[in-house]
Write a structure and sequence with these properties.
This protein is mainly alpha-helical. It is built from six helices and no strands. It has helices spanning about 1-70, 75-85, 85-110, 120-135, 135-145, 165-175.
């Protein structure tokens, strides 16, 4: 009889352990889904807040390029160099590039930790590549950070963007 009681106790303990484990994994999965949704919402809001400033930067680059080609203005390279001499302008124009790069770095961090689904990351990464290829100042900012070996960007984040040599090779292969 005592053997049956021991068997019942063991079975009850196993069932309780299975129920507890199922609850734990279910709760962990739900918590992760809630966190992912919060991340997605937070980063989309941050991007929305930056989007107008990025568009202004794109417009400024376009206008500067047109005026430079007409001989009425300095080149984008000259303009870029001056930005680092004028603190007020730097905070406005270069600041948006740094803000966007920091946002992307945060997104990449959470992707590497497994909290951003790969299909969401793919969309975000495509957006990063698009802004990088469209904005000269974005390219120069990333190049500057890469040359400084900026330690505050996680892992291989800056490697998501092509180096000047890689971009030139792609450009040359498209011209052939």
């Amino acid at each position: 009889m005592e053997l049956i009681k021991d068997y019942q106790t063991i079975c009850a303990a196993l069932i309780a352990a299975l129920v507890a484990a199922a609850y734990y994994f279910s709760k962990a999965s739900l918590d992760k889904a809630v966190f992912q949704r919060q991340l997605f919402s937070e980063y989309n809001k941050k991007y929305d807040d930056l989007n107008d400033r990025l568009e202004k930067l794109r417009h400024l680059e376009f206008e500067t390029t047109i005026e430079s080609e007409q001989g009425n203005s300095k080149s984008l390279d000259d303009y870029w160099e001056e930005l680092f001499e004028e603190p007020a302008a730097k905070s406005e124009l270069v600041g948006v590039a740094f803000d966007y790069i920091n946002l992307c770095s945060e997104e990449y961090y959470w992707y590497k930790k497994g909290y951003v689904e790969s299909d969401v990351w793919k969309c975000w990464h495509n957006g990063m590549k698009s802004w990088y290829s469209d904005l000269y100042f974005m390219q120069k900012t990333i190049e500057r950070e890469r040359n400084k070996n900026a330690p505050y960007y996680n892992d291989d984040f800056l490697d998501l963007f092509p180096t000047d040599e890689e971009a030139a090779a792609v450009s040359r292969s498209g011209d052939a």
